[in-house]
Amino acid sequence: MNRTDRLYALVEELRAVAPRPRSARWLAERFEVSVRTVERDISALQQSGTPIWAESGRAGGYCLDRAHTLPPVNLTPEEAVAMALALRSMAGTPFRQPAASALRKVLAAMRPEDVAAAHDLAGRIQLAGEATPVTLPRLAGGPLPVGCVLRIGYADRFGAVTLRDIEPLGYVGVNERWYLIAWCRLRESVRIFRSDRISSVTPTRETAPPRSLSEAGVQIPHRLRPLSLT
Predict the structure, then answer these.
(1) pTM, to two decimals
(2) Which helix (H) or strand (E) holds 205?
(3) Cα–Cα distances in Å, from 84 out to 9, 21, 95?
(4) How far, in whole angstroms, is CA 100 from its chain's centroid?
(5) What CA–CA distance (Å, rounded) separates 166 from 152?
(6) Per residue in 177-222, pLDDT tens?
(7) Helix axes 112-123, 77-87, angle to 10 degrees
């Protein structure tokens, strides 16, 4: 079990028995780690704002304030990534740390498989600098329908529109503009599409072969960083 999954499981274990405590030794045996690892994990959860406290005594241990927590929420990976993008606007404000703490709480409340999917989606979003483009692209089939084939109308710089079948791979956000990275079947190679030049989007019934953004090998004259969920 990786650390993210273990943090989630620790919270759920303490929530299940609240307000009764669980000792660090009991939790260490339960998750097959050392007592010291449990103590570090509990400290990390406390620093992120999770209401856990320690009760002393022979029957003591760690307790979760169930009245101040929420049960697991059914956030989708796309919703978690949308929150991460929105919270980037807090980077230059005094609320930067609370925003990061809020995102960690959201991830801790999600199912492990959804967290993994959210990290995969976030890795397909590359950003230049600290700013986040304001106008977000819209595609049929979801924010980034990887594995789907879309038919788009795309205008060149002169306004001439061509129909293309594409396989979405990721997004690049530079300054105030979003670009869609996709395999273009018309050109038989990876292409970069300006989102404001996409005039129409129609999903097809065809499934695209698996392709990663790293395999695309797109050269962009900007220093890019993937969207972080941490």
Answers:
(1) 0.61
(2) strand 198-207
(3) 22, 33, 14
(4) 13
(5) 7
(6) 888 999 999 988 888 898 889 989 998 989 988 887 766 666 665 6
(7) 50
